[in-house]
Amino acid sequence: MAHAGLMRSLSSIARLFAFACTALVSIGCAESPAGPPPASEATAKSAAKVPDYADEAASWGRYHSKRFQLSLPLPSGREWRIDDRSRPNLFAMHEGTSSRLWLTSTQETELMNRQRCEARAKAMGWVPEGLTTVDEEITGSPPGYDSRIWIALDAGKPGGALQGHVFLFGAFLRKCLLVHMTTSVPSAKHEDVLSSRLATFRARVVRGIELDPLRVTDDAEVPRTNR
Q: Which residues form the signal peptide (predicted)?
């Protein structure tokens, strides 16, 4: 019975995620995704207690990492706590939605592709065991990169919580760009919120990463941090 319940949750998450992604594409990612079809009144009231990312475009921020020479957009930008100094990777946390983000760029000794960069992420312990695929995409994002975006679900959390994951495994020449984001909801009753968060992160955060222009001098101008 537990297995059947998990499969129903996975099927529903995949359906809602596809709906949210379609909504994002249809509006050109200019606005937040529309919600899924109306649920029962009880479910709607329960889901309303679990926050999604803010809808207003003005609430978004863009963080610039001088260390990794890139910038990335973040929903509810001012609510993220960002550590880009004390760890080997950039780490960001949004308490309101139980969201976490890790980002790093590695320099390798051989030519890389997305498969090798994914293996690199696994060797670094970035990919948990037992995840179930919701969706995946092969893309050239950021521009020039050979990348895989992977959306996955961990339904085995204590208390019936659902945790969603978004990964980016990107390769460019001898470099890997790795991104891992997680976000959680208390139960399958809030799967529409989880699907919306994952779709937003895939379409507007991961695909919104911008690399700094190539600099030829140390004093060249770089974008300012805005968060």
A: 1-20
- Interatomic CA distance for residues 7 and 4, integer angstroms: 5
Domain limits for position 16? 2-33+59-211
Q: Between residues 127 and 215, which one has the greater pLDDT?
A: 127
Q: Helix, strand or coil for residue 71?
A: strand
CATH number at residue 192: 3.40.1000.10
In the chain, the number of structural domains is 1
Using DSSP's 3-state secondary structure scheme, residue 48 falls into: helix
Alpha carbons 32 and 199: distance in angstroms, whole number = 10
Residue range 16-60, pLDDT digits in tens: 555 555 544 444 444 444 444 454 454 445 445 789 998 778 899
The residues pairing with 181 across neighbouring beta strands, listed in sequence order, are 101, 166
- Residue 226 falls inside a structural domain: no
Distance CA 105, CA 12 (A): 34
Query: Mean pLDDT for the chain?
Result: 82
CB contact at 8 A, 181 and 100: yes
Closest-CA residue to 135 (of 26, 28, 17): 17
Q: What is the pLDDT of residue 155?
A: 80
The answer to whether residue 199 sits within a structural domain is yes
End-to-end CA distance of the chain: 46
